Amino acid sequence: MSRRSGEPFAAVDVIRVKRDGNVLSDQQIDWVVDAYTRGAVADEQMAALAMAILLRGMTPGETARWTRAMVASGTRLDLSDIGRPTVDKHSTGGVGDKITLPLTPLVAACGAGVPQLSGRGLGHTGGTLDKLETIPGFRAGLSGAEFASQLRSVGAVICAAGDDLAPADRKLYALRDVTATVESIPLIASSIISKKIAEGTSALVLDVKFGSGAFLRQFADARDLASVMVELGTAHGVATVALLTDMNTPLGHAVGNSIEVTESIEVLAGGGPADVVALTLALARQMLDLAGLGDVDPADALRDGRAMDRWRALVRGQGGDPAAPLPVAAETEVVRADRDGVVTAVDAYRVGVAAWQLGAGRARKEDPVSAAAGVRLRRRPGDPVRAGDVLLELLADDAARIPAAQETIRGAATIGDSLQETLPLVRERIA
Ligand code: URA
User: Fold this and answer.
1) Is the Cβ atom of 161 under 6 angstroms away from ligand 1?
2) Does the CB atom of residue 240 touch ligand 1 within 6 A?
């Protein structure tokens, strides 16, 4: 097939290689990623290639080269002079997953530098930046100089990725989103890891979730993704470890933007829900270990206020007022227990979708989100209840949003006579 002038390959030939189940060469991968970023490969051609990759897979060698090409599409930050070992955490996303908020200042308080580039929420899982932006004055868009300066002074920064960080991924991820090609393990792994390599962190802990509220429901799929990402990160010189964690139940009691900030502050104050504290500490221990700070106990920094001090410095450093009151919902509706018993499950997916319908999430990336909307779990699995007790609270700015969320959340909390044995939140570690 004819090539565009000046191009070494024709996109259609590259697509055909993968369509027929063959292996792409390094040169073909480098070219197609670069040419797509430049606009020399059309969206429909990249969509066909992404579908061929989804159906045929990629070898470990192809996935590593694809990742390298995505990093090379933009700038790679150099954090070697910030004066601390750098370590980051990435979660594949879950309902009520506010762990980045307490974890980032906690790990910084223990001596590491945490360059946390985060995103906004799309669909039923919330975005870290949407939560932080409920704090009056908080700025998620920092320049490269501001990012490095805060990392040096506070040791912790949580902001949006700049446009020059893995631009190939930004374009490809948006295309995959509308062409049913997100669910490819090599494409997910290369997407996530390319951004982390470009961000310049020396070490990375992955929180790979499975269960009803996770992006991958099956444990086996989450484990495959975790293994590919650990291998990719390590091969690119980033010390990488993954924890596989349960996302069948929302994390904590709060699912929404400002209410998750409040719950995170409770954790930083030494309280908060047991599961949020446990996962924060489990991830912090992995991060500190990779940063060479394995003898520091992060539980001490939660107890003695150092993590809270670091949170305040982080928020202030990004223009926010850590003491300002957070927005509160105007409308509240409750879901009550219809019998006596014990809560046996609270389904994360249905809670996530209900929070999204109440206004906490967005359907399209340009939509606004409500700061105060969400769902509060008044009871969690294992809690005893009496008929009529409040199980869930629905919060919204606009009462018109409540009926659809009520419909979604009906039956999300189940009540039985007793709770069967529960499995641990952190199911496996992959290194
Ligand atoms: N998150 C990402 O950043 N990329 C994917 O492909 C999927 C989830």
Assistant:
1) no
2) no
CA pair distance 281, 164, nearest whole angstrom: 33
Please give the structure tokens belonging to residue 313.
Answer: 């410095």
pLDDT above 70 covers a percentage of the chain that reads 99
Summarize pLDDT for 340-349 with one digit per residue, the tens. 999 999 999 9
Predicted confidence at residue 177, as pLDDT, reads 83
CATH of the domain at 373: 3.90.1170.30
From residue 253, alpha-carbon distances to 4, 275, 335 in Å are: 56, 10, 14
Q: 99 with 23, same domain?
A: no
In a domain, 192, yes or no: yes
**Catalytic site residues?**
90, 169, 176, 191, 195
What span, in angstroms and rounded, lies between the C-alpha atoms of 385 and 336?
10
Domain limits for position 363:
331-416
Q: Supply the residue whose CA is at minimum distance from atom 8 of ligand 1.
A: 188
Q: How many domains does the chain have?
A: 3
Same domain, yes or no, for 129 and 278?
yes
The protein residue whose alpha carbon is closest to atom 2 in ligand 1 is 192
Strand 203-210 relative to strand 87-91, pairing: parallel
Residue 194 main-chain phi, psi, to 5 deg: -60, -40
Nearest atom (ligand 1) to Cα of 190: 6
> What is the secondary structure of 333-386 as a DSSP string?
EEEE-SSSEEEEEE-HHHHHHHHIIIIIS-SSTT----SS-EEEESS-TT-EE-
State the pLDDT confidence band at 122, using cuts at 50, 70 and 90: low
For residues 339-361, average pLDDT: 96
